[in-house]
Write a structure and sequence with these properties.
Number of strands: 9
Distance between the termini: 11 Å
Radius of gyration: 16 Å
Helix content: 40-55%
Number of helices: 5
Largest sheet: 5 strands, antiparallel
Shape: globular
Oligomer: single chain
Length: 181
Protein backbone atom coordinates (compact mmCIF):
# COMPACT_ATOMS: atom_id res chain seq x y z
CA UNK A 1 0.00 0.00 0.00
CA UNK A 2 1.23 3.50 -0.72
CA UNK A 3 2.60 5.24 2.33
CA UNK A 4 2.24 8.90 1.32
CA UNK A 5 -0.83 10.68 2.64
CA UNK A 6 -2.23 12.97 -0.09
CA UNK A 7 -4.77 15.77 -0.12
CA UNK A 8 -8.15 14.70 -1.47
CA UNK A 9 -10.74 17.15 -2.75
CA UNK A 10 -14.24 15.76 -3.22
CA UNK A 11 -16.79 18.57 -3.59
CA UNK A 12 -20.28 18.72 -5.04
CA UNK A 13 -21.77 21.48 -7.17
CA UNK A 14 -25.14 21.97 -8.76
CA UNK A 15 -25.42 23.35 -12.28
CA UNK A 16 -27.36 26.60 -11.97
CA UNK A 17 -29.37 26.43 -15.16
CA UNK A 18 -29.78 24.85 -18.53
CA UNK A 19 -26.36 24.35 -20.00
CA UNK A 20 -25.97 23.25 -23.58
CA UNK A 21 -22.26 22.43 -23.48
CA UNK A 22 -19.62 21.72 -20.90
CA UNK A 23 -17.61 24.63 -22.28
CA UNK A 24 -20.23 26.97 -20.82
CA UNK A 25 -19.37 25.71 -17.33
CA UNK A 26 -15.71 26.53 -17.82
CA UNK A 27 -16.45 29.88 -19.47
CA UNK A 28 -18.79 30.99 -16.68
CA UNK A 29 -17.86 29.53 -13.28
CA UNK A 30 -20.96 31.14 -11.75
CA UNK A 31 -23.01 28.42 -13.45
CA UNK A 32 -21.60 26.03 -10.82
CA UNK A 33 -23.18 26.31 -7.36
CA UNK A 34 -21.06 24.71 -4.65
CA UNK A 35 -23.20 22.94 -2.06
CA UNK A 36 -20.52 23.74 0.54
CA UNK A 37 -19.99 27.42 -0.34
CA UNK A 38 -23.50 28.34 -1.55
CA UNK A 39 -25.80 25.91 0.28
CA UNK A 40 -28.99 27.98 0.09
CA UNK A 41 -28.68 28.91 -3.58
CA UNK A 42 -27.71 25.34 -4.50
CA UNK A 43 -30.67 24.07 -2.47
CA UNK A 44 -33.03 26.34 -4.38
CA UNK A 45 -31.59 25.06 -7.67
CA UNK A 46 -31.96 21.46 -6.46
CA UNK A 47 -35.66 21.95 -5.64
CA UNK A 48 -36.32 23.70 -8.98
CA UNK A 49 -34.61 20.91 -10.88
CA UNK A 50 -36.48 18.18 -8.99
CA UNK A 51 -39.80 19.96 -9.57
CA UNK A 52 -39.14 20.16 -13.31
CA UNK A 53 -37.71 16.62 -13.56
CA UNK A 54 -38.54 14.40 -10.57
CA UNK A 55 -35.53 12.36 -9.52
CA UNK A 56 -33.02 14.60 -11.31
CA UNK A 57 -29.85 15.53 -9.45
CA UNK A 58 -27.54 16.77 -12.19
CA UNK A 59 -24.34 18.28 -10.93
CA UNK A 60 -20.62 17.84 -10.67
CA UNK A 61 -18.26 16.14 -8.27
CA UNK A 62 -14.91 17.86 -8.36
CA UNK A 63 -12.44 15.17 -7.42
CA UNK A 64 -8.70 15.52 -7.14
CA UNK A 65 -5.99 13.53 -5.44
CA UNK A 66 -2.63 15.04 -4.56
CA UNK A 67 -3.43 18.02 -6.78
CA UNK A 68 -4.21 15.86 -9.83
CA UNK A 69 -7.70 16.51 -11.18
CA UNK A 70 -9.69 13.30 -11.68
CA UNK A 71 -13.21 14.63 -12.24
CA UNK A 72 -14.70 18.03 -12.94
CA UNK A 73 -17.50 19.60 -15.00
CA UNK A 74 -16.60 17.42 -18.00
CA UNK A 75 -18.10 14.55 -16.02
CA UNK A 76 -21.31 16.18 -14.87
CA UNK A 77 -23.85 13.54 -13.94
CA UNK A 78 -26.50 12.62 -11.37
CA UNK A 79 -24.98 13.54 -7.98
CA UNK A 80 -27.09 11.43 -5.63
CA UNK A 81 -26.56 8.13 -7.46
CA UNK A 82 -22.89 8.88 -8.08
CA UNK A 83 -22.18 9.51 -4.40
CA UNK A 84 -24.14 6.35 -3.53
CA UNK A 85 -22.12 4.34 -6.06
CA UNK A 86 -18.86 5.71 -4.62
CA UNK A 87 -19.96 4.61 -1.14
CA UNK A 88 -20.74 1.12 -2.47
CA UNK A 89 -17.33 1.06 -4.16
CA UNK A 90 -15.64 1.84 -0.83
CA UNK A 91 -17.61 -0.91 0.91
CA UNK A 92 -16.58 -3.42 -1.77
CA UNK A 93 -12.95 -2.32 -1.54
CA UNK A 94 -12.88 -2.74 2.23
CA UNK A 95 -14.44 -6.19 1.94
CA UNK A 96 -12.54 -7.56 -1.08
CA UNK A 97 -9.58 -5.30 -1.87
CA UNK A 98 -11.31 -4.11 -5.03
CA UNK A 99 -14.34 -1.86 -5.45
CA UNK A 100 -15.90 -0.69 -8.69
CA UNK A 101 -18.53 1.78 -9.77
CA UNK A 102 -19.49 3.78 -12.83
CA UNK A 103 -20.92 7.19 -13.46
CA UNK A 104 -24.71 6.83 -13.80
CA UNK A 105 -25.02 8.36 -17.28
CA UNK A 106 -21.51 8.17 -18.69
CA UNK A 107 -19.26 5.33 -19.79
CA UNK A 108 -16.73 6.22 -17.08
CA UNK A 109 -15.69 3.52 -14.66
CA UNK A 110 -14.22 4.07 -11.22
CA UNK A 111 -12.05 1.43 -9.55
CA UNK A 112 -10.22 1.28 -6.23
CA UNK A 113 -8.04 -1.81 -5.87
CA UNK A 114 -4.97 -3.26 -4.28
CA UNK A 115 -2.35 -4.88 -6.46
CA UNK A 116 1.21 -5.85 -5.57
CA UNK A 117 1.08 -4.15 -2.15
CA UNK A 118 -0.03 -0.89 -3.75
CA UNK A 119 -3.46 0.73 -3.92
CA UNK A 120 -4.68 2.16 -7.21
CA UNK A 121 -7.60 4.44 -7.95
CA UNK A 122 -8.87 4.87 -11.50
CA UNK A 123 -11.40 7.30 -12.91
CA UNK A 124 -11.85 6.49 -16.57
CA UNK A 125 -8.43 6.27 -18.21
CA UNK A 126 -6.59 7.93 -15.32
CA UNK A 127 -5.10 5.52 -12.79
CA UNK A 128 -3.07 6.62 -9.78
CA UNK A 129 -1.04 4.97 -7.08
CA UNK A 130 -2.91 6.19 -3.97
CA UNK A 131 -2.81 6.10 -0.21
CA UNK A 132 -6.15 4.31 0.17
CA UNK A 133 -6.93 5.56 3.69
CA UNK A 134 -6.48 9.20 2.58
CA UNK A 135 -8.62 8.65 -0.50
CA UNK A 136 -11.36 6.89 1.43
CA UNK A 137 -11.46 9.54 4.15
CA UNK A 138 -11.64 12.28 1.50
CA UNK A 139 -14.45 10.54 -0.36
CA UNK A 140 -16.36 9.98 2.88
CA UNK A 141 -16.00 13.65 3.80
CA UNK A 142 -17.28 14.70 0.37
CA UNK A 143 -20.21 12.29 0.50
CA UNK A 144 -21.09 13.35 4.03
CA UNK A 145 -20.97 17.03 3.07
CA UNK A 146 -23.30 16.37 0.12
CA UNK A 147 -25.84 14.24 2.01
CA UNK A 148 -25.81 16.52 5.07
CA UNK A 149 -26.42 19.51 2.79
CA UNK A 150 -29.27 17.61 1.17
CA UNK A 151 -30.95 16.94 4.53
CA UNK A 152 -30.47 20.52 5.71
CA UNK A 153 -31.38 22.41 2.55
CA UNK A 154 -33.87 20.08 0.88
CA UNK A 155 -36.00 18.81 3.72
CA UNK A 156 -38.23 16.79 1.40
CA UNK A 157 -35.24 14.56 0.53
CA UNK A 158 -34.29 11.66 2.78
CA UNK A 159 -30.58 10.95 2.67
CA UNK A 160 -30.48 9.39 6.15
CA UNK A 161 -29.73 5.98 4.63
CA UNK A 162 -26.63 7.27 2.89
CA UNK A 163 -25.43 9.01 6.06
CA UNK A 164 -25.92 5.72 7.92
CA UNK A 165 -23.76 3.94 5.32
CA UNK A 166 -21.04 6.56 5.84
CA UNK A 167 -21.24 5.92 9.59
CA UNK A 168 -20.99 2.15 9.03
CA UNK A 169 -17.93 2.56 6.80
CA UNK A 170 -16.27 4.81 9.38
CA UNK A 171 -17.00 2.25 12.12
CA UNK A 172 -15.50 -0.51 9.98
CA UNK A 173 -12.41 1.59 9.33
CA UNK A 174 -12.09 2.30 13.06
CA UNK A 175 -12.07 -1.46 13.66
CA UNK A 176 -9.19 -1.85 11.18
CA UNK A 177 -5.57 -1.42 12.13
CA UNK A 178 -5.31 2.27 13.04
CA UNK A 179 -1.91 2.53 11.40
CA UNK A 180 -3.56 1.75 8.09
CA UNK A 181 -6.74 3.83 8.37
Amino acid sequence: MSLANQDVVARSSMISGDVESVDELFDDPELMLSVEDQPGVAGTRWREMRAARPGASTGVIELSYGGLLLADARLSDELWPLWSYLLAMIEEYLADGVGQAAFPNRPVHIVLRDRDDTSYFAVGDIELDVHAPSLIHGLLEGAEAFFTWLLEECEEEDAAGELAVIGQIRAEIADEDESEF
